[in-house]
Amino acid sequence: MHGKDFDIRINTPHRIRFTRDAFCYENRLLVDLLKTNGQAKVIAFIDSGVAQAFPELESQVNDYLEHMPGFASRGTIVQAGGEGCKRDSSTLQAAWDTLENAGIDRHSYIICIGGGAYLDVIGLAAATAHRGIRLVRFPTTVLAQDDSGVGVKNGINAYGKKNFIGTFAVPYAVINDFSFLHGQPELTRRAGIIEAVKVALVKDAAFFRWIEDQCEKLTKLHPHTLEETVERSALLHAAHIAYGGDPFETGNSRPLDFGHWAAHKLEQLTDFELSHAEAVSIGIALDTVYSWKSGRLDEKSAMRILKVINKLQLPTWHASLEQKCAKGAREVFNGLEEFREHLGGELTVLLLRDIGKGEDVHSMDNNLLDECIDWLKLDADISVVR
Ligand SMILES: NC(=O)c1ccc[n+]([C@@H]2O[C@H](COP(=O)([O-])OP(=O)(O)OC[C@H]3O[C@@H](n4cnc5c(N)ncnc54)[C@H](O)[C@@H]3O)[C@@H](O)[C@H]2O)c1
Ligand SMILES: [Zn+2]
Q: For residues 17-32, b (16+ Cβ closer than 10 Å) or e, as one string?
């Protein structure tokens, strides 16, 4: 037997840009970012929720693409976004059909404007058609701009599992256009801030202190404060992907998944009635209280974290935490097993030692988790009375 191990180095830039009104003719960010051989085709996919919130958008994008010197516009297509577009493969299939009909090739660019769910689907279409076409993502929700949109993953749900079919593919560029944020309903805009809280908790204590100081303004969705939060969070997420040593998640340690083992399960248990952001908020509250009750995190820090979540008017408890399976254990505990499966072997969950400092653990105690959930329920009841 003989052979050789080659060391393939993938040096891919991960371009993250921030702007406003990217499709105003005067804004040259997009056109200056793309390279052309004089005839590169460009096509834009738009999430219908965004198109509805910004009725001028489609014609504005069409206009912009038509006037990109050296590029051949293939126009725009609007499709329904939201979690529904990930539930089956019909949106993905329609996207492939569109790419084929438009003659999109490996020299072309795909632009995708939408929330995290739609970006996931079009990201998968872009990564797989012709084995990969350059994708420029325009995340349009707070959650997508401060977290998922700046990542390198895509996917659709299958076999009852989130993101069962998907790939890792670094987009050609991510453009966070702040003007999109303000079309989102207040509730979901505020909820998306939780991913910024999360990355601050695991990476950057100073950022968490800043969020605490800005809480009042953030709750009121003060535009500049929200945009600064989104930008700092996006850069922390992107830096972790680029420099964290595991961009394609081959290892077990997932600091950016703090609070997510419970969150993913709660989304599923509530049939997505709880949004990803709301579920993450509860998951973070649970793992914070667990970090405290297991003697890792001091009580004062735990209370500071819960206070920020409360001030942002995000949930720390939900009735689905009480759901029991036939054996009498809480259903949510199966989230740990699913998390372990997802990691492909050893369970690794990040807990907090301090604000800004995590610790990987490989098991969690169900009795202590029970106690933490009861504590959160009581605290939520007291908060209502308060
Ligand atoms: N790929 C990843 O790394 C990753 C990471 C975390 C989450 N996600 C995925 O992201 C999805 C959640 O994304 P989301 O929170 O961005 O929500 P979403 O994509 O589900 O969008 C929610 C709704 O808002 C609409 N919308 C989007 N932008 C809007 C705007 N600017 N104005 C008005 N309406 C708008 C959409 O049409 C949709 O109806 C989940 O599917 C989750 O699994 C992916
Ligand atoms: Zn998340």
A: ebeeebbeeebebbbe
